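Standup notes
- HV: blocked on the assembly model, inputs below
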Amino acid sequence: MAYYVNRNIKMTWWERIYIPEIIKGMIITSRHFFVNLFGFIPFFLGTQKERKIMTVYYPEEQVQYPVAYRGRPVLAQNEDGHPACVACGLCEIACPAYCIHIEPGENSGKQNQYERWPDVFNIDYAICIFCGNCEEACPEEAIFMSDDCEISMLDRKKMLYTKEQLLTPVADLQKRIEFTRNMYAKWNY
Ligand code: SF4
Ligand code: SF4
């Protein structure tokens, strides 16, 4: 389920004096600490099937990221295999890290039914800051933040992903597409 940050929230007097909220936060942190410290005991004694523990044994266990999570940006691929991108360049301009490089291809009337597409579309994840500006700027729903964050490499050059590596079927992006539609409609852009 998608969730949003309510930026117009009004704090009560009780919240504005901060001390009770700090104590509340410390109680939550302490609870997590003790659950993590002792939560594995019933599991190892066999009295519980699952570990009551907040930490994840990565990489054997994987985290289910929320739909709002911003992992590496990917390019949406239509069902016919073509990128949804029209190479307008708005994401390239909006990118504060200058890590997107696009070279457009244009139709001479023969290649396909599309007017424009990216011949080259590269994103350098070594300098991407996962801000999501590219997704927000795109008028074609062609670039989305995915939930994939496992992109670390020993060689920085390999973190430059080409169009072929970035393409992700639209069907796999449905949740994020729905989320962005709700989010940007909410901010009334
Ligand atoms: S997420 Fe931000 S830094 Fe990364 S490619 Fe998109 S606009 Fe650029
Ligand atoms: S991804 Fe979107 S904003 Fe970027 S060039 Fe393609 S259509 Fe334009």
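- HV (later): unblocked. The pocket of iron/sulfur cluster (ligand 2) is lined by residues 85-91, 102, 137-138, 140, 142-143 (CB under 6 Å). Strands lie at 73-77, 100-106, 116-124, 143-145, 160-161, 167-169.
- Next: hand off to the docking folks.
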